[in-house]
Design a protein that fits this description.
heterodimer; A: alpha/beta; 9-stranded mixed beta sheet; two-stranded antiparallel sheet; 23% helix; globular; B: alpha+beta; 7-stranded mixed beta sheet; 23% strand
């Protein structure tokens, strides 16, 4: 399986994603934002970081990078595109995903483990998983997902919510919402479910010595689903 | 503008220093030259009051590749790998403008590390604030934490450990000390020594603006009520540009184009160009019209003294300009050939076709002033006698609550949650432990680092305090299973012109030197920050020690959380009941006289090395050193982290229960051992003549102190975790 990670100026989780994808069997290529063509890929990942320093609006300048036209075309033709953290912000800015990511409710950067509940498992990212509550790691300043009421209705009607923040036993209540996201949303799909944006970093949970191993489960399952 | 003594004094120079400048030049300097002298000769850049004493520190060792004198120190961590590390202060700017001051402190120290070819892999910091009740403290704390996070998070370097202290003596002068570790291959280290004639001098990074002019001079003076007016001397950071600069520099460094490289930190273009020329025993010629400027009509004086951030100066091999420019263009960074190396041994500056400065490099460096300041020796204070009745009246549970929620003990989660501590995917011990630990990417090795200070001990007796901080750093590394290798120090003191403050400095340095020599724990880098003083009042003497150690197989790393019910808990090291200068004495008895706990370097070394032996034999399940707050505090943290309790044995000594639990005797650790290993452990301890006591057995949910006193782990947690968050929200 072939994957591609795009490096923007200011990306800083690109290497971590490369390590994770290779560890679980992808043949990964790093592609510079200024390139035009996307190599043949089964999965394209927009990694976390601070593309363009988060200046103007998080992800807005990166969404106008040369490579992004190819990424958008790839997504529109049904290719799998996953954006993590800043990658999620970029996807929102391209319009591939609805809504926006605002500054965290308490105006502070948050770096910690959280639990998320998988809401929709009829998609290439989450199908075939044995459980629906995962411990993931977040590290962001702008992860407060927001959209209009109409957008929210549409998202929910189309089962576009991928994961919700929740308690260890899967309760999606406000108390476990780390950043003020509307309805505890931690990640969403496009209508077709081939584009996923999420704030948590599964690539930081791929080793018992790190924060945990739920990221390993995610990646192992992902490559099996794509095969 | 004509220069005279008055203008020189306005630049922070003394009249005898101005006279020396005129003598060295055999003429009156022009204003640009005077600016350059003032930048090079201030305390911050010249170490004129400290040099004499710093020479006495042990800086050599088998593992030392580079000691003090370069951008950072370097140690060998076996195979082809080396760690580059240093700690540096950014105290003065952080008080004036906490966000930018702290941010650029972090940016500056990372630049020092990647200038040497190393990719930063971990950040640490030691921050000190005034009393929580002081009106400025909360905003300063918030600003500093946001600044540290804002810069480090954007760079994608994990902040893995740190220390936060509160004390009245920092009410008018906070401390922000930032430390960075970088990883480099031994054959890919870069230095600042220029070599060869006619080699192009390259400017890369951000454009030069008017920010930070006289920053280093400001940091070399005491504060007064007009300090707010100094805001323009604080630099403004752009971590995004620094991230690009890091990647661009490392890309250029992978080839063989660079002869010498130096970041523009304090005193900007002035100190970087002069340092490279001085180390290479060369001259340097710069055309200031070629320097990329952010603002119009900048004068030579402003260009030379600007402390704009994210800039580097490089001496390149001839013919490599095009290649280098391609790399910097790719990363959207400014690139300009601004001069060349010469054989004049002078720094010669040109602007609008005029020579605007011409100074012999050695006049600025070797001939810079060095002072043997007057200093006063301090006496060891007499021990206090605490009355039995006072101790008997004290209820342990109440004291424990007060101590665990004390600002200097309580959980700092509110702070470290704002720092990305997991990026780069190698952080295996997060903040909140004895030391931060990161793996050496792609190997089985890991590097541990911690940062410590004990200003109260240093204030009570500087010599003992100096030794103690080094020992504490050593213990923190051992507690996570790392072999201590070397330290970096950030020496924060009041005015060197005051003989009490100078005495504190001299004796702390002596203490640091004695301990690091004895423990074979050399000092490889560091910096001195004097004038942490408002009017006549200086801070408590605060040397911060950043220690670095190596874990050969990261799977053998130790954490402090209690692991299993039924395991036996021992104290390694002797408990004597030293209460003076303890947190207990100061906060519960309200007593701040008396000597700090004594340091016995033999025991310190023997206890530490024996514990490392036990760890290597996989006999230790958890470990934590005993420091501020004594046994019960250390124990509480192990219980909280492991969500387990302990049934304590009655101590068999002649000291009271209070002295047993709250004294801060040195050289001690708490360790957890599986019952099946206990015989083996005791054999090794006995064989090495290490004193130990049995503390108790791990149980489910309580600390059982005695028949009458029982505390649940949930209670301990609530004492410990709420203070800081509540304080910041209030």
């Amino acid at each position: 399986m072939k994957s591609t990670v795009i490096t923007f100026p200011g990306s800083n989780c690109d290497r971590d994603m490369d390590v994770a994808l290779n560890k679980f069997g992808f043949k990964n290529k790093m592609v510079w934002h200024d390139d035009v063509e996307l190599p043949k890929s089964d999965l394209v990942v927009l990694p976390g970081g601070f593309s363009y320093g988060d200046y103007l609006r998080c992800g807005s300048m990166a969404s106008k990078s040369k490579i992004m036209q190819s990424v958008v075309n790839f997504a529109k033709s049904g290719g799998l595109v996953m954006g993590i953290c800043n990658g999620f912000q970029i996807l929102v800015e391209t319009g591939l995903l609805p809504g926006v990511l605002l500054r965290n409710k308490y105006l502070e950067f948050i770096c910690k483990n959280v639990f998320v509940k998988v809401d929709n498992n009829k998609n290439p990212y989450f199908k075939n998983l044995d459980k629906d509550v995962f411990e993931f790691h977040i590290a962001h300043n702008e992860g407060n997902y927001f959209c209009t009421k109409d957008q929210l209705n549409e998202i929910e009607d189309n089962n576009q919510v991928a994961i919700h923040y929740c308690s260890a036993d899967g309760q999606t209540v406000e108390q476990f919402n780390p950043n003020g996201s509307i309805k505890n949303i931690a990640g969403i799909f496009n209508k077709e479910k081939n584009v996923l944006g999420m704030m948590p970093h599964p690539e930081r949970m791929i080793d018992q010595s790190l924060s945990g191993e739920d990221g390993s489960l995610f990646f192992k399952n992902l490559i099996n689903n794509i095969k | 503008m004509l220069v005279n003594e008055k203008i020189a004094i306005e630049h922070g120079l003394k009249s005898n220093e101005y006279k020396k400048i005129c003598d060295l030049l055999k003429r009156t300097p022009n204003i640009t030259e005077l600016g350059i002298f003032s930048a090079m000769w201030n305390e911050h850049c010249s170490y004129k009051s400290s040099r004499l004493h710093l020479k006495k520190l042990p800086t050599k060792g088998k593992k030392v590749i580079q000691g003090p004198g370069e951008n950072a120190g370097i140690i060998d961590i076996e195979d082809d790998d080396a760690i580059v590390f240093k700690i540096e202060s950014h105290n003065h700017p952080s008080f004036i403008e906490p966000y930018q001051g702290a941010a650029t402190g972090v940016g500056g120290i990372m630049r020092d590390v990647f200038t040497m070819g190393a990719r930063p892999i971990a950040n640490l910091n030691s921050i000190h604030f005034g009393s929580p009740q002081h009106k400025k403290t909360k905003n300063l704390l918030r600003g500093v934490v946001h600044g540290i996070g804002g810069y480090g998070n954007c760079m994608g370097v994990p902040t893995v450990a740190g220390q936060t202290c509160f004390d009245n003596s920092y009410n008018g002068n906070i401390l922000v000390n930032a430390m960075t570790l970088g990883l480099v291959k031994k054959d890919k280290i870069f230095y600042s020594k220029a070599a060869g004639l006619g080699k192009p001098v390259i400017y890369v990074g951000s454009k030069t603006g008017r920010d930070g002019i006289h920053g280093a001079s400001m940091a070399s003076a005491s504060f007064d009520e007009k300090i707010e007016e100094k805001k323009p001397t604080v630099q403004v950071g752009d971590p995004f540009t620094e991230k690009l600069l890091l990647e661009a520099c490392l890309e250029l460094m992978s080839g063989d184009s660079i002869i010498a490289i130096q970041d523009m930190g304090a005193a900007g273009l002035t100190s970087s160009s002069i340092e490279m020329a001085s180390k290479g025993n060369l001259g340097i010629e710069i055309n200031l019209n070629k320097v990329p400027c952010r603002e119009t009509k900048m004068t030579p004086y402003e260009i030379m003294l600007s402390e704009s951030q994210e800039r580097m100066l490089i001496v390149l091999e001839n013919g490599k300009e095009k290649l280098a420019k391609t790399i910097f263009d790719k990363w959207n960074l400014d690139f300009a050939v601004i001069g060349k190396t010469t054989d004049s041994k002078n720094i010669e500056l040109f602007f609008d076709d005029q020579k605007v400065a011409n100074i012999p490099v050695n006049a600025l460096v070797e001939n810079s002033p060095m002072y043997d300041r007057k200093w006063k020796k301090s006496k060891l204070p007499k021990k206090n006698k605490i009355k039995k009745e006072v101790l008997n009246k004290i209820k342990i549970k109440e004291v424990l609550k007060k101590i665990l929620s004390n600002p200097n003990i309580c959980s700092k989660e509110w702070i470290y949650q704002q720092y990305d501590h997991t990026v780069m995917g190698d952080t295996i011990q997060k903040p909140g432990g004895d030391a931060g630990v990161v793996r050496v990417h792609g190997t089985n090795k890991a590097v541990a680092a911690s940062v410590d200070s004990s200003a109260v001990y240093c204030w009570a007796h500087p010599l003992t305090g100096g030794k103690q901080v080094v020992c504490e750093s050593w213990r923190n590394l051992i507690s996570v299973g790392a072999t201590p290798v070397a330290i970096t120090n950030c020496l924060n003191f009041g005015s060197p012109e005051n003989e009490n403050n100078m005495g504190e400095f001299v004796e702390c340095v002596q203490g640091i030197g004695e301990a690091s020599a004895y423990l074979n724990f050399p000092v490889v880098s560091g910096n001195v920050s004097f004038y942490n003083q408002t009017k006549e009042v200086g801070i408590k003497p605060t040397p911060s020690i950043g220690g670095v150690g190596l874990i050969k197989n990261y799977k053998n790393m130790i954490t402090m959380d209690f692991k299993e019910v039924g395991n036996i808990v021992l104290i390694i090291g002797k408990t004597l009941g030293h209460i003076d200068q303890s947190l207990f004495a100061r906060t519960i008895l309200d007593e701040d006289n008396g000597p700090p706990p004594e340091i016995n370097l033999f025991n310190e070394k023997n206890n530490g090395e024996t514990l490392l032996k036990l760890i290597k034999e996989s006999l230790i399940k958890s470990a934590h050193d005993i420091s501020l707050g004594g046994i019960i505090t250390a124990l509480s943290k192990m219980c909280i982290k492991g969500n387990k309790g302990i049934d304590l044995k009655k101590p068999k000594f002649l000291i009271s229960e209070i002295e047993y639990f709250f004294s801060e005797d040195q050289g001690r650790y708490i360790v957890e051992i599986n019952p099946k290993d206990i015989k083996n452990v005791i054999k090794i301890l006995d064989k090495n003549a290490v004193h130990y006591d049995e503390l108790g057995i791990i149980v489910d949910k309580h600390i059982i102190i005695n028949e009458k006193t029982k505390v649940t782990i949930d209670e301990l947690k609530s004492y410990n975790t709420n203070w800081l968050k509540d304080y910041m929200d209030s």
